[in-house]
Amino acid sequence: MMVMTSTLSVHGHNIKVTEVLKDGDTLTFLIVSQKLSGTGEHHVDRTYDDFEWLQQLLFSQEDEPGIQGVIFPSLPAKASANPSAKVMKQLGFLGLGEWQLYCKVLERYLRQVAAHSILSKNKAVEIFLTSSEPPGRQRARKNLFNRLSQAVEERRKEGYKDVDEFFQTERNHNLVLTCYAKTAAERFLDVVQSEQKIAVACAHFSASLHLCVEPGEDPDKQAFSKACVQLSEVFDSIKKNMTSVAENDMNTLGLGLDLESRCQEAEKEMLFRRTCKLVELEAARRNAEKAKPLKKAAMEEAKKTAEIEFNDICVVAKQEVHRFRAARVKMLQHTLVQWCEKQLLTAKESADQFNQQLQAFRGIAP
Amino acid sequence: MAASSDRIPPPFPDTEEPGVCDMADGDRDEGEDIFVICVYGSFAFFIVGGGARVTSVRKKELSTSSGPPPSSSVTQSPAAMQPSSSLQQLEEEEDEDIFDVDVAVTNPEKIGYVLCPCICFQTSLAMFRSKAFSVRRRYSDFLGLYEKLSVKQSLQGCIIPPPPEKSVVGMTKVKVGMDDPSSVEFVERRRAALERYLQRVVSHPSLLQDPDVRDFLERDELPRAVSTQALSGAGFLKMINKASDAVNKMTIKMNESDTWFEDKFQEVENEEQQLRKLQVVVDSLVSHRKELCGSTAVFAKSMAMLGNSEDNTALSRALSQLAEVEDKMEQLHQEQAASDFFIFAELLADYIRLLGAMRGCFDQRVRAWQRWQEAQSTLQKKREVEAKLLWANKPEKLQQAKDEITEWESRVTQYERDFDRIGMTVRKEVLRFEKEKAKDFKGQIVKYLDAMLQSQQRLVKFWEAFLPEAKAIA
Fold first, then answer.
1. What is the DSSP pairing of strand A26-34 with strand A41-47?
2. pTM of the model
3. PX domain: which residues (chain A) (predicted)?
C-alpha cells in the first residue's frame, strides 16, 4: 500500500503519551513528540482506532522484503472508558487505576515503532505522529496478519519441524516463555489486587476506630479513647504503606511482566509466520519436483520466489531475534531494579513511620 | 458491614458457626465419645509459668511437616509466630508484670488418649503451697471452673471472664491427628484463648481467693466436670440473654435511684455494638491477608518456573532470587495475618464476651432489687394477714402470723443488704474492668506495632539482598 518511504521528522526515543481524555465511551490520547529540527513539538490526539490503523498499515508493507520476519511491537487490547468485565480481565494490569499504565504501554509502542529501522520508514508513522487531522479511519484490509486465520492453522503448523537449529531452539524456547510469562503476569495481578483489598480493609478499620472514642472525664475512658485514636493512625499508616506497595508493584514489575508477556506473543507470531512460509516453501519444492514438463517452468518459478521470500524472512528474523533477546533482558533488568528500589524505599519509610508511632505509644503514661 | 444487633457472637474465622457446637445434647463432655474411635489421641495444653504466655507445641511423633515451628519452652507472646525461647526475655517481662501470679498455657501434649491442657505457673504469693508448679487440665476442666465461678461469684456482681468456646469440628480434626494448617491454627487459637482466660481469672483479686480457683491451679487431679454443655459459646450467651429476658419480664420495673447504673448499662450496650463492628472489619482484614499469602505463594512458583526456563544466566539467577524473595514474603504475610488475628480479632472477641458478662452483672443487681421488693411486698401481705387475724380474733393463727412477719422482716433486711452489696461490687468491677480494658488494648497495640516494625525491617533486608542481583543482570 504505502510505496513511499520516508524518514521520521521527530525524535523517537522521547515520544510521550501525556494525557488521556474520556469522551463518552471513547478514550482519546494526547501524544507529544519533539521535532528533529529542534524547533518545537507536535501535539496530536489519537484514539485506539487510530493506533490500530497504524498497526494495520505497518503489517501491510508487502513490498518490503522479509517484512514478515519482523517482530512487531505489540498493541494492548482495546480499552474504553467503561470497560466490560471481560475486557478488564484481558487488560490485566493495564486496566488498573486511571489508565496510567495503559498510556505508558502505548507510549512504549510508539517509541518501539519509531526506533525500528524498517517500520519507522513507513509514511503512516509520520502521519500518525505529526498530522493534526486524525488519520483515515477506514479499516485496512485484512492480510496475512489476521490472527483469526492463524488460530485455525496454528495447531497444524506450530509443531512443524524446522530446517534451522537456531530457529527450532528459538521456537521451543519461545513457546515455554510465552506461557510462563503470561501466567506470571496473571498471578502477579492477583497479588496486587490482594494488596489493594488489604489497604481498603485497613482504611475501614481506621475509620471504625474513630467511632469507638468515648467522651468523658474518666481517666481510663480517656486512655482507651486515646489508644483508639492512635491505633486508627497506625492503621492509616498501614493503609498508606499497602497502597504504595501495590502501586510500586503495578508500575514496575506488573508493567514489566505485561510487556514481557505481550512481547513473547509478538515473537511467537513472527516465528509462526516464518514457519508458515517454510511450509509453503517445502510444498513449492515438492510441486516443482513432481511437476509434469508442461507445468515445470511455472513451478520452478514459484519455487524460486518462495525460496527468496523465505530467505529474506530468515535474514530479518534472525536480526530481530537477536535484537529482541537483548531488548527484553534490558527491559527486565530495568524493571527488576526499579521494582526493588521502589519497594526498598517504601519499606524503609514504613519502618521509620512505625518506629515513630511505637515510640510515641510507649511514651504515654500507662 | 452493618452491625448486627442480635447477641450471637460472629463465628471464629475459619471455623463453623457456634450454633453447630450446641447440636450435641445431654451432658456429653466435649468430644468424649469421639475419643473412643480416635487412634492418635490429641493435644494437651501445657500451661507454664512466667507471665501471661501461651505456647503450643505438638508432640513430636504427631507433627510431621506443616504448622508453626515447635517451641519447647516458654516463648514470647502469641502474636509472634516465631517463638524465641530466651529466658532472659522472660525474666525481664516478669519484672514488668504486676501480677503476683503468673500463669501461662503451653505445650499441648498427648497423654494417653485424652486431651489434656497443662498449666504451669509461678507465684510469690504465700497462699499457694509452692512457688512454681505445673498441672495438667482438660478443656472441660476449664469449663467446669467457669461454671463453678459463675454460680457463686456472679451472684455477688463479679464479672467472670468467659472461657473460649467449644468447637466440635475443630477438636475432631485435632483428635483425628490431622496435620493441616487449619487444625494447627485451631490448637494455637485454643491455647492462646485459654491462657488469656486464666490470666484474667488470676488477675482478679476476689477470684484469686476463690478456693475453686486454687484447686484448679494446684490440685493434681480434679474431679471430672460434667454438664459443661451449657457453657459452649452460644450457650453462654443464651444464658446471659435468658437472664436479661427474665429481668425484663418482671412486673415490677426497677425504680433506679442511681442514674450511674442506667448510664453505664447503656454505655456497655453501645460499646458492645461498636466492638462487633470492629470485629467484622478485622475479620475481613485477616481473610485478605490470608488471600495475599496464597497469591504470593502461587506467584513465587510461576517466577521460579520462568527463572528456570531463562537462557541468560544472570537473568535466570535474578528471577530465581525473586521467587525466593516472594517465598519469604509469603512467610511474612502469614505472620502478619496471625498477628492481626491474635492481637486484634481475638481481643475484640474476648471483650465482646466480657461485655456480655458485664451486662449479666447488671442484670444480677436488678434481680437482687426485685427480690428485695418482692420480699417487702410479701412482708406487707403478712402484716395485713396479721391485722385481719387480730380483728377476726383468731389467736391460734396469730402466733404463726407473727413468726412469719419476723422471718420476712429479716429477709427484707437481708435482701436490702444484698442489693446494696451487689451495687457496690458492680461499681467496683466496672471501674476495674475499664482500667484493665485500657491497659489491655494499649498493651496489644504496642505488641502489634512492634511486630509490624520487625516485619518491615525484615522486608528491608530482603530487598537490600535482592538489589545487587537485579543490578547484575546484563
1. antiparallel
2. 0.78
3. 1-136
